[in-house]
Amino acid sequence: MDLLRAVIVGAYGTPYQDGLFFFDFHLPPEYPDVPPLAYYHSGGWRINPNLYEEGKVCLSLLNTWTGKGNEVWDPSSSSILQVLVSLQGLVLNAKPYFNEAGYDKQIGTAEGEKNSLSYNENTFLLNCKMMMNLMRRPPKDFDPLIKEHFKKRGFYILRACDAYKKGYLIGSLAKDASTVDDESHANSTSIGFKLMLGKIVPKLLLSLEEIGVDCCEFEHLRNS
C-alpha cells in the first residue's frame, strides 16, 4: 500500500476544535529512506500558516521546511504516526499565528498576542465553513465517518459558537465546549468576528440538523 488518507480531529483548546482535517500521503518507492509526500484537502481556505490552499504541507519532518535533529525525517526512526502527531500537536495548535516564519519573535508581546487573537477568530470562522463543506461534499468513502463525527459533536460545536458569540476567547473552552475560565469572558472577541459568526452559525445549524443533530437548545442562534 503506497497511498493513504488520514483525518485528524481538531483538538479542544484550539480554534480547530471538532473540525476534521484530511491529508493524503504517498509513500514513494524510496520510502522510508525519504519521507512521504503529503497533500492537504484545504477546501480552498488557508486555515494555518503551514497548510496551503493548493494542498502543500510545510513541515520539517516532511522535508518541506527547515529543521534540525529530530525535527527532520530520520529513515531509522521516523514514521507516518510521527507525522500525524506533529500535524495535530505542532501545526493545528492553540496559537497558529506564531507558526508563520519569523513570527515566533512576537510571542509574549502585546502586538503578537493581539494578532494571534485576530488570527484565531478568522481560523475558527474558516473551521465552521469547512465543517459545512465536509457535510455537503464528503471525501470519497468518508461519508459515514463525517456524519458520525458531526452527529456526536454537533451539540458541542453549537455550544462553542454560542460561547464565542458571548465573548469567550477562541480556544478557551473545555472538550464539552463548556467555559472553564470566567475571566476569559470579558467580551474578548471582536465585533467583526461576532457579526461574521452570526452569519455563519444559522447555516451551520441547518447543516447539522440535516444529518440528525438535535439543535433545539440553540434556537436562539437560528436568527443570530
UniProtKB/TrEMBL annotation:
- Keywords for this entry? Transferase, Ubl conjugation pathway
MF-aspect GO terms: ubiquitin conjugating enzyme activity
Keyword Transferase in the entry? The reply is: yes
Keyword check for Transferase = yes
User: Domain UBC core spans what residues?
Assistant: 1-132
- Top-level taxon: Eukaryota
User: Which InterPro entries does this chain map to?
Assistant: UBC, UBQ-conjugating_enzyme/RWD
Q: Per its UniProt record, what SUPFAM superfamilies does this chain match? A: UBC-like
Q: What is this protein called?
A: UBC core domain-containing protein
Species of provenance: Punica granatum (Pomegranate)
